[in-house]
TrEMBL record:
Quaternary state and interactors: Monomer.
Source organism per UniProt: Craurococcus roseus
CDD domains, sorted: Radical_SAM
EC number: 2.8.4.3
Family designation: Belongs to the methylthiotransferase family. MiaB subfamily.
Cofactor: [4Fe-4S] cluster
Gene3D superfamilies given in the database record: Methylthiotransferase, N-terminal domain, tm_1862 like domain
Radical SAM core domain ranges (all copies): 155-388
Name of the protein in question: tRNA-2-methylthio-N(6)-dimethylallyladenosine synthase
């Protein structure tokens, strides 16, 4: 830890919305500001600088941002009236997409920065203290931001940690802002990724989740040159780090699941048998309109290959219902795909237009009432599948990574290989250990269990536990 971080002279509060990538980015922004004397603040009231790290994916992202900025304006004024100062920055995808609107509607914002320019934050803070008006930096600079961020992380992440290996996307799905806000696909070279993973393990991480908007498009420079590494090769190298018990990666695209990645699932016990693989729709018509570049059959074939390689693999996915042009028969095809695959977990959303994306201006928008009805039907089916998967674990002994203390005295919390939160009575001396746990009960979103003697066993494959169609 740097001296500045050990005894901070100024306080920084970062609010993150959205995905794990944003949480990771917030950590890196704290890292670059630590040498300027910024340490963590409990909340905005105690902060000399507040960063709102925004996400454009979810609905009403900009309304949420502007209402938060309204609250912070009052706080900033109070501080200034008392002779103090608060630097206010907006970062992330909304900043990238709507930078000009932010400065027009909220002129009390000092800094607007896109996800590719976090390494320039110290310079922007210095400029903001001199400038009248906001400093805006939403470029896609030629130099990669990862190369400019400091190596050492000021704050250890704990037993489970995130590590960004890839950013941006070139796929231009019709509904998605990522190619516009995060820019073209970029992969970090493998050597700094491995170095960061070793550092995280030395700081206590036992599980690392590799992050990227399209993480399995990863193609980073190999250490020492030569051919670039794909994600499968990178996972193999990470699996050799002593003390690193578990690996995961998210978010993946079905088109980028190659043989090397499938083989990694077959060969690496550290690679957890749980994969988030968005399919979005089960209709080939809609998948084509979404510009996904795969069919429903392609997705089924990828799922089969992965399950053949790792029979206990559970799948999670994302669905959008009511994409422009989606008919009842297309939605039925989505339900059919869900029944055929059987998901342990899934996220489903009504299509909502994102400004600047092709689908937003498509003429054949689906009426809201129809979207609502379809979403309810899909979520009922997915909930049944999730509950059935969780029930399939009851009565089994599974390996649980203990991640922290539980809500009640004498309880600890952990994580199953399939990402279920698990609660059990045990000593907090076990934090950081993988222990066998007999699963006693399944709830919709978690499991409860008890420490078991002996070794954990694998659950049956997910498909054998598939519930009856809704
Ligand atoms: S692949 Fe994912 S990140 Fe890329 S455009 Fe499509 S939805 Fe967005």
């Amino acid at each position: 830890m740097s001296e500045a971080a050990a005894s901070p002279r100024k306080r920084l509060f970062i609010r993150s919305w959205g995905c794990q990538m944003n949480v990771y980015d917030s950590g890196r922004m704290a890292d670059v500001l630590a040498p300027l004397g910024y340490g963590p603040a409990e909340g905005p009231d105690a902060a000399d600088m507040v960063i709102l790290n925004t996400c454009h994916i979810r609905e009403k992202a900009s309304e949420k941002l502007f209402s938060e900025l309204g609250r912070l304006r009052a706080l900033k004024r109070e501080k200034e009236a008392a002779g103090g100062r608060m630097v206010l920055a907006v970062a992330g995808c909304v900043a990238q997409a709507e930078g000009a609107e932010i400065t027009a509607r909220a002129p009390w914002v000092d800094i607007v920065l896109g996800p590719q320019t976090y390494h320039r934050l110290p310079e922007m803070v210095a400029r903001a203290s001199r400038a009248a008006g906001a400093v805006i930096d939403t470029d896609f600079p030629a130099e990669a931001k990862f190369d400019r961020l400091p190596e050492a992380s000021a704050a250890p992440q704990g037993v489970t940690a995130f590590l960004t290996v890839q950013e941006g996307c070139d796929k231009f799905c019709s509904f998605c802002v990522v190619p516009y806000t995060r820019g073209a696909e970029y992969s970090r070279p493998a050597a700094p990724v491995l170095a960061e993973a070793r550092r995280l393990v030395a700081q206590g991480a036992r599980e690392i989740t590799l992050l990227g908007q399209n993480v399995n498009a990863y193609h980073g420079d190999a250490p020492g040159g030569g051919r670039t590494w794909g994600l499968g090769r990178l996972l193999r190298a990470l699996a050799e780090i002593p003390g690193l018990e578990r690996l995961r990666y998210t978010t993946s695209h079905p088109r980028d699941v190659d043989d090397e990645l499938v083989a990694a699932h077959r060969d690496l016990p550290q690679l957890m048998p749980f994969l988030h693989l968005p399919v979005q729709s089960g209709s080939d018509r809609v998948l084509a309109a979404m510009n996904r570049g795969h069919t429903a059959a392609d997705f089924l074939s990828v799922a089969e290959r992965l399950r053949a390689a790792r029979p206990d693999l559970a799948l999670s996915s994302d669905f959008i219902v009511g994409h422009p042009g989606e008919r009842a028969a297309d939605f039925d095809a989505t339900l059919a795909l869900v029944r055929e695959v059987g998901f342990a977990l899934a996220y489903s959303f009504k299509y909502s237009p994102r400004p600047g994306t092709p689908a937003a201006s498509a003429p054949n928008q689906v009426p809201e009432a129809e979207k609502d009805a379809r979403l309810q039907a899909l979520q009922a089916l997915l909930r049944d599948q999730q509950e059935a998967f969780n029930r399939s674990l009851v009565g089994r002994t599974i390996p649980v990574l203990v991640t922290g203390t539980g809500r009640h005295h004498g309880q600890v919390a952990g994580r199953s290989p399939w990402l279920n939160p698990v609660h059990l009575s045990a000593s907090d001396a076990l934090i950081g250990e993988v222990v066998p746990v007999a699963v006693l009960a399944a709830h919709t979103n978690s499991l409860s269990g008890a420490l078991a003697a002996g070794t954990a066993t694998e659950p049956p494959s997910q498909r054998r536990e598939e519930p009856a169609p809704a």
